[in-house]
Amino acid sequence: VTSGKVIKCKAAIAWEPKKPLSIEEIEVAPPKDHEVRIKILASGICRSDDHVLEGLKSNIKFPIILGHEAAGIVESVGRAVTTVKPGDKVIPLIVSQCRECQCCKHPNANLCVKADIRKHTGLMDDNTSRFSCKGKLIHNFLDTSTFTEYTVVNEISVVKIDDAAPSEKVCLIGCGFSTGYGSATHTAKVHAGSTCVVFGLGGIGLSAIIGCQVAGASRIIAVDINKDKFPKAKAVGATECISPQDYTKPIHEVITEMTDGGADYTFECVGITDLMVSALKSSHYGFGATVIVGVAPTGAKISLDPMLLLTGRTVKGAIFGGFKGKESVPQMVTDYLTKKINLDELVSHTFPFEKINEGFKLLRGGKCTRTVLTF
Ligand code: PAD
Ligand code: ZN
Predict the structure, then answer these.
(1) Which of 12, 282, 318, 339 could link 147 by a cystine bridge, Cβ 3.0 to 4.6 Å?
(2) Coil, helix or strand at residue 155
(3) How far is the CA of 286 from the centre of ligand 2 (A)?
């Protein structure tokens, strides 16, 4: 029995930016009162992990255990925990839900005030870490940290899912799938018969396409500078694929012409501020809506003509597709099991955890959709 004891296990440590991750033996302390220790079974690699590793998120502290898109089994729980128990299959939540704060009580919000996503302390509520390596404190990432055999999270940052769910697929519901899918179905509320444009065809953009299709969009225009991404985009529902590099005109002019004045909904799934403005300009005068999904480097600013908004366009942004995790994650897992949604196309590679650096290489080289690591 490991309950109540420190667990020694393997984790991928990011000691500093721009260096490969190093697999090390770490010590994982037992969960405190409101905490849950989880044995990770599968974890996807998301661009947000790479943003930190590339040093683009200067407010995030190293050394750190990255990873935030996972599924696992509860190993042990703190004494005040009531919603999960050892043996439960779970998904850690990057968007926590305390159910008591103004946001959790608000029907339209999904960010928790208690676990404020802007703070990035990299620590648990008592300002300590459950991870250490060679006597050094290791920070957590997005209240989850899943590139490790064991992690500890707050009870508000984890939810039980159906035991029958295949972890190496449903782990994507922990970030990429929900983020893209919810941006279309929940944040934008795409309507049947509409025209949608998705910029960026990684795991997030493809999931946005799936959401647009499920919502009944009749045209889904997929945009990427890497044409290798087009076949997958078509496979999940894109009706047309275009590359900005094939035109001399700016991409928003191309899209405006293709769509008789602009799209109903546009989605920026890359993280480039100029592209966010292009997405807005690609939406129709009077009713177009843009959702910002991509995460820009810390401190980056958008500059735009307010006339774009004055004339009836809207811009929204959402983390995790605007979904409240505790309710929507188990529901999406059920929808996956009953084949209402299909995300298998998103997993392009499955590697053993030890090959994590190869997964990051594929991501940087534009050679994958999602790599899932298994433990
Ligand atoms: P990815 O790198 O797999 O996909 C990004 C795609 O964008 C690639 O296919 C690129 O070729 C393409 N691209 C790059 N530049 C351009 C350009 N100028 N025009 C068109 N396409 C371009 O990343 P991902 O899908 O894992 O993540 C995408 C973004 O979403 C990234 O910024 C990530 O940090 C963010 C994200 N947001 C949330 C959220 O909750 N809002 C969650 C997870 C990830
Ligand atoms: Zn992510």
Answers:
(1) 12
(2) helix
(3) 32
